[in-house]
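Exercise 7.
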Amino acid sequence: MRTTAKENPRYGYRRVAVVSGVGSGSAWRLWRQYGFKIEAQRTRKPRKKDKLANPVPQQAEYPNHVWTYDILFDRLA
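Solution. The predicted structure, written as tokens, is:
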């Protein structure tokens, strides 16, 4: 169980128990005894504000090119 937990630091006690062939109760008891902990997942960097700015609106060049303009045209007609 120790080797499985060290080789796969993101595995919890349940998955280590399945891989090792140990019962889940025994795995939990050993997990606490050895002081194993799951490594924290990496956090993602927040996106930059520049990319979230309003995009340049598209100009409709032909029918069905930009749907919002087509729908507005149909409603106003």
